[in-house]
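Inverse folding, one chain.
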């Protein structure tokens, strides 16, 4: 839903076009036109001709991580995918001054993918992994960031500057959607492999587990302690989930459970801003 764009723009990067296949993500960006004034393209990158795209100094790719993640091992789906080839295709043909790729640390296990994204001729490539969301936000989330530039450029790990606590994330008067299956899970009804992860906002050192897109389908996996709630725990609201990703308060949501998926699929905004700050440093 354009979280990478927001962070880049906050750093001063001029984003001229975004491309996404997910109609819900495109609709979310259109709903927030005050943030996304650039061209937003609803298209499949596998069918997109590179030379039809505008020239740019930077190409940023954030293709899905599903096939690279450790969770995929559970379902035998940790196979990688071909989308990196289309990211590679755009970078190799356009040859921008710089490029950025973001994904999960598990991508490092795919040697063919890493070779394609780090051994492009004419580029000096830095792989920063893991980059932890805990540098900025109370959320456990590690990511792999690849930054390629045509001139040598030093990029260090971000310095921790987190000032936000879990208590800052929590809404004062939350309107909580609690499906029946969440009630059942809290009461121990049903065959669940894992117990819910419960986060206590009163603990200043508390960290949320990774904000995942799957929360849209199973809100019982991550719960927040709330003494006002019937069971003393409840799911995160959409706004709280967004705050865990550093989403600005002026971003609007449609209020559907699908919003959790959009948020979970996004890049934490402060992490994207850190990427943008490094790009601005390079070009300046």
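Residues assigned per position:
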């Amino acid at each position: 839903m354009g979280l990478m764009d927001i962070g880049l723009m906050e750093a001063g990067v001029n984003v001229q076009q975004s491309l996404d296949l997910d109609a819900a993500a495109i609709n979310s960006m259109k709903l927030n036109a005050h943030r996304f004034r650039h061209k937003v393209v609803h298209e499949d990158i596998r069918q997109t001709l590179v030379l039809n795209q505008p020239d740019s100094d930077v190409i940023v790719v954030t293709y899905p991580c599903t096939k690279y993640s450790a969770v995929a091992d559970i379902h035998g789906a940790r196979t990688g995918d071909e989308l990196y080839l289309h990211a590679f295709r755009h970078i190799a043909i356009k040859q921008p001054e710089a490029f950025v790729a973001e994904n999960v640390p598990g991508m490092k296990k795919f040697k063919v993918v890493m070779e394609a994204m780090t051994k492009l001729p004419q580029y000096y490539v830095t792989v920063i992994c893991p980059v932890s969301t805990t540098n900025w936000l109370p959320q456990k989330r590690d990511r792999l960031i690849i930054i390629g530039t045509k001139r040598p450029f030093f990029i260090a790990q971000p310095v921790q500057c987190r000032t936000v606590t879990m208590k800052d994330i929590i809404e004062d008067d939350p309107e909580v959607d609690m499906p029946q299956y969440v009630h059942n899970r809290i009461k121990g009804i049903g065959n669940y492999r894992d117990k819910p992860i419960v986060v206590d906002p009163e603990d200043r050192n508390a960290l949320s587990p990774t904000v995942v897109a799957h929360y849209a389908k199973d809100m019982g996996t991550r719960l927040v302690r709330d003494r006002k709630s019937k069971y003393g725990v409840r799911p995160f609201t959409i706004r709280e989930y967004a705050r865990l990703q550093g989403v600005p308060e002026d971003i609007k949501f449609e209020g559907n459970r699908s919003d959790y998926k959009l948020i979970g699929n996004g890049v934490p905004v402060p992490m994207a801003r850190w990427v943008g700050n490094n790009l601005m440093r390079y070009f300046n």
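The domain at 3-160+268-283 is CATH 3.40.50.150 (Rossmann fold). The first helix runs from residue 3 to 10.
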